[in-house]
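Sharing a chain and its predicted structure for anyone who wants a worked example. Both blocks are below, sequence first, tokens second.
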Amino acid sequence: MADFDGARLFVYARSLGTVLRIDGEIDAVNATSVAQAIRRFALLKTPLILDLSQLFLSVDGFRALLVLNHEHQQARVHCSVVAGAALHPLLGIVGDHGLPVVGSVAEALQLIEDIVGSRRRFLAGMVRDRHARHEASPRRRDPVLMR
């Protein structure tokens, strides 16, 4: 647990990603330091789940969240946001926020599991297709062996 002038960050490592639960309040005083802490976890390049269900978020905090979301997209780091009662009004005001909002940590973990499963099936299909094309192609004789 880390304390950032009214916001508390709790970290839970899961097999599918990292859950960062933030309680308290993110405002002009601590938005930058909380965002920096989240950035350090994004460097791991594993999926993140930001559990903000117990958080009050000021406009400064919401702005920091939008910047983080853009950075995660650019870095190709999957990040889900569990929104709470304080975040929902801001989401309603800013219509095209682009935040990947989910209803719970369990839903976010299921989403990551589904993404990983889809990727595995896609890659397995590519390997099968390549193997099938290789087996179906006519074998070329090595000119050196034909002598």
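Comments welcome. Helices lie at 31-42, 59-75, 88-93, 105-136.
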